[in-house]
Amino acid sequence: MPSADEVRALVGKNLAHVQERIAQACHAAGRAPETVRLIGVSKYVGPDETAELVAAGCCDLGESRPQQLWDKAETLTERGCQVRWRMIGHLQRNKVARTVHYADAIDSVDSRRLLAAIDAAAQAIGKQQQVLLEVNISGDQEKHGFLPGEVGQVVSEMATTWPNVVLRGLMGMASLVGGEAAARQNFADLRQLREQIVSQTGVELPELSMGMSGDFEAAIAEGSTLVRIGSALWAGL
Ligand SMILES: *Cc1c(COP(=O)(O)O)cnc(C)c1O
Protein backbone atom coordinates (compact mmCIF):
# COMPACT_ATOMS: atom_id res chain seq x y z
CA MET A 1 0.00 0.00 0.00
CA PRO A 2 1.49 3.36 -0.99
CA SER A 3 1.48 6.07 1.67
CA ALA A 4 -0.78 9.10 1.35
CA ASP A 5 2.18 11.15 0.14
CA GLU A 6 3.03 8.55 -2.47
CA VAL A 7 -0.57 8.47 -3.68
CA ARG A 8 -0.57 12.25 -3.99
CA ALA A 9 2.69 12.28 -5.95
CA LEU A 10 1.61 9.45 -8.26
CA VAL A 11 -1.82 10.84 -9.01
CA GLY A 12 -0.39 14.29 -9.67
CA LYS A 13 2.23 12.86 -12.02
CA ASN A 14 -0.28 10.65 -13.85
CA LEU A 15 -2.71 13.55 -14.27
CA ALA A 16 0.02 15.81 -15.65
CA HIS A 17 1.06 13.09 -18.09
CA VAL A 18 -2.51 12.49 -19.31
CA GLN A 19 -3.07 16.24 -19.70
CA GLU A 20 0.13 16.49 -21.71
CA ARG A 21 -0.99 13.63 -23.99
CA ILE A 22 -4.36 15.32 -24.47
CA ALA A 23 -2.63 18.58 -25.37
CA GLN A 24 -0.39 16.79 -27.86
CA ALA A 25 -3.33 14.98 -29.46
CA CYS A 26 -5.17 18.31 -29.77
CA HIS A 27 -2.11 19.91 -31.33
CA ALA A 28 -1.77 17.05 -33.81
CA ALA A 29 -5.44 17.40 -34.73
CA GLY A 30 -5.25 21.19 -35.06
CA ARG A 31 -7.66 21.65 -32.16
CA ALA A 32 -7.47 24.04 -29.21
CA PRO A 33 -6.72 22.10 -25.99
CA GLU A 34 -9.70 23.64 -24.17
CA THR A 35 -12.08 21.93 -26.64
CA VAL A 36 -11.42 18.60 -24.90
CA ARG A 37 -12.41 18.00 -21.28
CA LEU A 38 -10.90 15.24 -19.19
CA ILE A 39 -13.36 13.14 -17.22
CA GLY A 40 -11.45 11.28 -14.51
CA VAL A 41 -13.00 7.84 -14.07
CA SER A 42 -12.73 6.99 -10.39
CA LYS A 43 -14.34 3.51 -10.41
CA TYR A 44 -11.03 1.73 -9.72
CA VAL A 45 -10.19 3.56 -6.50
CA GLY A 46 -11.65 4.66 -3.18
CA PRO A 47 -12.54 8.13 -1.94
CA ASP A 48 -9.01 8.96 -0.72
CA GLU A 49 -7.40 8.50 -4.12
CA THR A 50 -10.34 10.21 -5.80
CA ALA A 51 -9.96 13.23 -3.52
CA GLU A 52 -6.28 13.44 -4.51
CA LEU A 53 -7.26 13.61 -8.17
CA VAL A 54 -9.62 16.48 -7.42
CA ALA A 55 -6.94 18.24 -5.37
CA ALA A 56 -4.57 17.85 -8.31
CA GLY A 57 -7.07 19.74 -10.47
CA CYS A 58 -9.41 17.21 -12.11
CA CYS A 59 -12.90 18.24 -11.00
CA ASP A 60 -14.96 16.38 -13.63
CA LEU A 61 -15.36 12.79 -12.49
CA GLY A 62 -17.18 9.78 -13.89
CA GLU A 63 -18.47 6.63 -12.22
CA SER A 64 -19.94 3.63 -13.96
CA ARG A 65 -21.92 2.28 -10.99
CA PRO A 66 -24.68 4.39 -9.46
CA GLN A 67 -24.04 3.32 -5.86
CA GLN A 68 -20.38 4.28 -6.13
CA LEU A 69 -21.29 7.64 -7.62
CA TRP A 70 -23.71 8.39 -4.76
CA ASP A 71 -21.27 7.27 -2.06
CA LYS A 72 -18.30 9.15 -3.46
CA ALA A 73 -20.39 12.25 -4.10
CA GLU A 74 -21.43 12.26 -0.43
CA THR A 75 -17.94 11.58 0.90
CA LEU A 76 -16.17 14.10 -1.30
CA THR A 77 -18.72 16.80 -0.57
CA GLU A 78 -18.14 16.23 3.16
CA ARG A 79 -14.44 16.74 2.52
CA GLY A 80 -15.07 20.01 0.72
CA CYS A 81 -14.24 18.78 -2.80
CA GLN A 82 -16.10 20.52 -5.60
CA VAL A 83 -16.87 17.84 -8.19
CA ARG A 84 -19.04 17.67 -11.28
CA TRP A 85 -20.16 14.04 -11.40
CA ARG A 86 -21.05 12.19 -14.58
CA MET A 87 -22.82 8.84 -14.66
CA ILE A 88 -21.09 6.86 -17.42
CA GLY A 89 -22.30 3.29 -16.92
CA HIS A 90 -25.54 1.41 -17.35
CA LEU A 91 -28.31 2.90 -15.22
CA GLN A 92 -31.37 0.98 -14.05
CA ARG A 93 -34.58 2.88 -13.63
CA ASN A 94 -34.86 2.16 -9.90
CA LYS A 95 -31.57 4.04 -9.44
CA VAL A 96 -32.50 7.08 -11.48
CA ALA A 97 -33.91 9.34 -8.74
CA ARG A 98 -30.80 9.28 -6.55
CA THR A 99 -28.52 9.57 -9.55
CA VAL A 100 -30.40 12.64 -10.80
CA HIS A 101 -29.89 14.11 -7.33
CA TYR A 102 -26.09 13.84 -7.59
CA ALA A 103 -25.14 13.83 -11.26
CA ASP A 104 -24.29 16.87 -13.27
CA ALA A 105 -24.77 14.72 -16.37
CA ILE A 106 -25.93 11.22 -17.25
CA ASP A 107 -23.92 10.13 -20.27
CA SER A 108 -25.12 6.55 -20.66
CA VAL A 109 -28.78 7.03 -21.60
CA ASP A 110 -29.68 4.03 -23.70
CA SER A 111 -33.49 3.76 -23.84
CA ARG A 112 -36.69 5.79 -24.03
CA ARG A 113 -37.85 4.22 -20.77
CA LEU A 114 -34.74 5.56 -19.07
CA LEU A 115 -35.35 9.00 -20.59
CA ALA A 116 -38.89 8.96 -19.20
CA ALA A 117 -37.62 8.01 -15.74
CA ILE A 118 -34.94 10.71 -15.79
CA ASP A 119 -37.47 13.30 -16.93
CA ALA A 120 -39.83 12.41 -14.07
CA ALA A 121 -37.06 12.42 -11.46
CA ALA A 122 -35.71 15.75 -12.69
CA GLN A 123 -39.15 17.32 -12.68
CA ALA A 124 -39.73 16.12 -9.12
CA ILE A 125 -36.75 18.14 -7.86
CA GLY A 126 -37.10 21.06 -10.25
CA LYS A 127 -33.94 20.22 -12.18
CA GLN A 128 -33.01 20.26 -15.83
CA GLN A 129 -30.93 17.08 -16.20
CA GLN A 130 -28.17 17.12 -18.77
CA VAL A 131 -27.71 13.86 -20.65
CA LEU A 132 -25.87 12.26 -23.52
CA LEU A 133 -27.38 9.47 -25.58
CA GLU A 134 -25.20 6.37 -25.65
CA VAL A 135 -24.87 4.90 -29.12
CA ASN A 136 -23.74 1.36 -29.81
CA ILE A 137 -21.20 2.31 -32.46
CA SER A 138 -19.21 -0.91 -32.43
CA GLY A 139 -22.19 -3.19 -32.94
CA ASP A 140 -20.90 -5.45 -30.13
CA GLN A 141 -23.87 -7.46 -28.90
CA GLU A 142 -23.06 -7.05 -25.21
CA LYS A 143 -22.74 -3.26 -25.40
CA HIS A 144 -25.54 -0.97 -24.32
CA GLY A 145 -26.77 1.95 -26.35
CA PHE A 146 -29.20 3.01 -29.04
CA LEU A 147 -28.60 1.66 -32.50
CA PRO A 148 -27.16 4.36 -34.77
CA GLY A 149 -30.26 4.21 -36.96
CA GLU A 150 -32.67 5.04 -34.12
CA VAL A 151 -30.86 8.01 -32.57
CA GLY A 152 -32.17 10.67 -34.98
CA GLN A 153 -35.78 9.86 -34.13
CA VAL A 154 -35.09 9.96 -30.38
CA VAL A 155 -33.32 13.31 -30.73
CA SER A 156 -36.24 14.83 -32.59
CA GLU A 157 -38.64 13.64 -29.85
CA MET A 158 -36.56 14.91 -26.94
CA ALA A 159 -37.69 18.48 -26.46
CA THR A 160 -41.40 17.74 -26.64
CA THR A 161 -41.46 14.37 -24.89
CA TRP A 162 -38.97 14.84 -22.02
CA PRO A 163 -38.93 18.58 -21.25
CA ASN A 164 -36.81 18.24 -18.08
CA VAL A 165 -33.99 16.54 -19.95
CA VAL A 166 -31.35 18.61 -21.75
CA LEU A 167 -29.62 16.72 -24.50
CA ARG A 168 -25.97 17.72 -24.82
CA GLY A 169 -24.63 15.12 -27.25
CA LEU A 170 -23.65 11.53 -27.86
CA MET A 171 -21.42 8.98 -26.17
CA GLY A 172 -19.87 5.88 -27.64
CA MET A 173 -17.35 3.17 -26.89
CA ALA A 174 -14.99 1.59 -29.38
CA SER A 175 -15.07 -2.07 -30.25
CA LEU A 176 -13.07 -4.33 -27.97
CA VAL A 177 -11.67 -6.08 -31.02
CA GLY A 178 -9.89 -4.74 -34.07
CA GLY A 179 -7.36 -2.52 -32.34
CA GLU A 180 -6.70 1.13 -33.01
CA ALA A 181 -7.91 1.17 -36.60
CA ALA A 182 -11.32 -0.21 -35.61
CA ALA A 183 -11.55 2.21 -32.70
CA ARG A 184 -10.79 5.18 -34.92
CA GLN A 185 -13.43 4.05 -37.42
CA ASN A 186 -16.00 3.74 -34.60
CA PHE A 187 -15.19 7.29 -33.46
CA ALA A 188 -15.41 8.64 -37.01
CA ASP A 189 -18.79 6.93 -37.35
CA LEU A 190 -20.10 8.60 -34.19
CA ARG A 191 -18.90 12.03 -35.35
CA GLN A 192 -20.60 11.54 -38.72
CA LEU A 193 -23.79 10.37 -37.04
CA ARG A 194 -23.74 13.54 -34.93
CA GLU A 195 -23.31 15.72 -38.02
CA GLN A 196 -26.10 13.94 -39.83
CA ILE A 197 -28.51 14.28 -36.89
CA VAL A 198 -27.65 17.94 -36.35
CA SER A 199 -28.42 18.73 -39.97
CA GLN A 200 -31.59 16.59 -39.96
CA THR A 201 -33.10 17.86 -36.71
CA GLY A 202 -31.54 21.28 -36.18
CA VAL A 203 -30.75 20.22 -32.60
CA GLU A 204 -27.27 21.24 -31.44
CA LEU A 205 -25.20 18.36 -30.10
CA PRO A 206 -22.03 20.02 -28.80
CA GLU A 207 -20.62 17.09 -26.84
CA LEU A 208 -19.09 13.88 -28.15
CA SER A 209 -17.93 11.61 -25.33
CA MET A 210 -15.50 9.11 -26.76
CA GLY A 211 -12.04 7.84 -25.88
CA MET A 212 -10.65 5.99 -22.87
CA SER A 213 -7.10 5.30 -21.63
CA GLY A 214 -6.26 3.03 -24.55
CA ASP A 215 -7.72 5.04 -27.40
CA PHE A 216 -8.25 8.69 -26.45
CA GLU A 217 -5.73 10.08 -28.92
CA ALA A 218 -7.67 8.52 -31.81
CA ALA A 219 -10.91 9.86 -30.31
CA ILE A 220 -9.50 13.39 -30.10
CA ALA A 221 -8.38 13.13 -33.72
CA GLU A 222 -12.02 12.32 -34.59
CA GLY A 223 -13.54 15.20 -32.63
CA SER A 224 -14.11 13.97 -29.08
CA THR A 225 -14.96 16.73 -26.57
CA LEU A 226 -15.06 14.52 -23.45
CA VAL A 227 -12.47 11.81 -22.84
CA ARG A 228 -13.25 9.33 -20.05
CA ILE A 229 -9.96 8.22 -18.57
CA GLY A 230 -9.50 5.78 -15.71
CA SER A 231 -6.55 3.40 -15.68
CA ALA A 232 -3.99 5.90 -17.00
CA LEU A 233 -4.71 8.15 -14.00
CA TRP A 234 -4.26 5.37 -11.45
CA ALA A 235 -1.18 3.64 -12.92
CA GLY A 236 1.27 2.51 -10.24
CA LEU A 237 -1.23 2.57 -7.36
C1 LIG B 1 -14.12 2.27 -16.97
C2 LIG B 1 -14.68 3.14 -17.99
C3 LIG B 1 -13.88 4.10 -18.64
C4 LIG B 1 -12.40 4.27 -18.35
O1 LIG B 1 -11.68 3.23 -18.92
P1 LIG B 1 -10.08 3.17 -18.88
O2 LIG B 1 -9.73 2.28 -20.00
O3 LIG B 1 -9.72 2.63 -17.55
O4 LIG B 1 -9.57 4.55 -19.08
C5 LIG B 1 -14.49 4.92 -19.58
N1 LIG B 1 -15.80 4.80 -19.89
C6 LIG B 1 -16.60 3.90 -19.28
C7 LIG B 1 -18.02 3.84 -19.67
C8 LIG B 1 -16.07 3.04 -18.32
O5 LIG B 1 -16.86 2.13 -17.74
From TrEMBL:
GO MF term list: pyridoxal phosphate binding
This protein's UniProt keywords: Pyridoxal phosphate
Residues recorded with modification N6-(pyridoxal phosphate)lysine: K43
Keyword Manganese (UniProt): no
Tagged with keyword Repressor: no
InterPro entries membership: Ala_racemase_N, PLP-binding_barrel, PyrdxlP_homeostasis
Essential cofactor(s): pyridoxal 5'-phosphate
Family that this chain belongs to: Belongs to the pyridoxal phosphate-binding protein YggS/PROSC family.
HAMAP family cross-referenced by the UniProt entry: PLP_homeostasis
Role according to the record: Pyridoxal 5'-phosphate (PLP)-binding protein, which is involved in PLP homeostasis.
NCBIfam families: YggS family pyridoxal phosphate-dependent enzyme (TIGR00044)
PANTHER family named among the record's database cross-references: PROLINE SYNTHETASE CO-TRANSCRIBED BACTERIAL HOMOLOG PROTEIN, PYRIDOXAL PHOSPHATE HOMEOSTASIS PROTEIN
Protein name: Pyridoxal phosphate homeostasis protein
